[in-house]
Amino acid sequence: MKAPARPRVDATSPAALGLVAVLLAASGFWALRQADAVRDDPSVRNAALTDSAATSEVKGAVADMVGKVFSFNYTDPARTQKAAQDALTGNAVRQYEEIFAKVRSDAPKAKTVLSTRVTDSAVTTLTGDRAVVLVFADQQTTRTSDGTSTHAPAMLTVTAVHRHGHWRITALDPFTGR
Question: Which of 23, 52, 60, 162 would be a feasible disulfide site paired with 129, CB 3.0-4.6 Å?
């Protein structure tokens, strides 16, 4: 006697097709989660690592703004004030006042000229319209009252935003060495 034949599962049977659909949906869901994880990685969103043109643009704009707002001539204080109004916004206005108030008050007495030149900078983060830039600068202070001149390095972190076609500084964090 022959053994009874077992029922065969046909590849086109509803059960087999349902199983294939479930497996495809599960693998699609897994692939979507993996893609989201890659997009959520901060290094992928940081254009400072991938967009040299945008990085160069923000470096140049921040260097120009820092050079202007941290330079001061006792004979023309309005020039620095205008530069600060054009470049600073948000918390940076208050932070700048805390940093620069003494220079403005002491400069006329000593007839001081402060010149700030950015020597190097690095964009650490550039995401959308926001950038964080590490700035290295050389500051030269000349007191015309007694002819003395001093040089000092400066380092600060600048946060900037791009609004209406221009970069503006929103935060200043000087490194004081403390």
Answer: 162
Q: What digits encode the pLDDT tens for the residues 108-119?
A: 998 999 999 999
> What average pLDDT is seen over the chain?
87
Q: What is the pLDDT of residue 160?
A: 97
Burial 85-113 (b: 16+ CB within 10 A, else e): eebbeeebeebbeebbeebeeebeeeebb
Q: How far apart are CA 149 and CA 142, in angstroms?
A: 4
Nearest-angstrom CA–CA distance, 133 and 170: 12
What CATH fold (topology level) applies to the domain 51-174?
Nuclear Transport Factor 2; Chain: A, (3.10.450)
Q: How far apart are CA 118 and CA 93, in angstroms?
A: 20
What residues are paired with 157 via a beta bridge? 134, 173
Question: In whole angstroms, what is the distance from residue 8 CA to residue 5 CA?
Answer: 9
For residues 128-141, average pLDDT: 95
Which three-class secondary structure state does DSSP give residue 33? helix
**Cα–Cα nearest to 155, from 111, 110, 124, 127:** 124
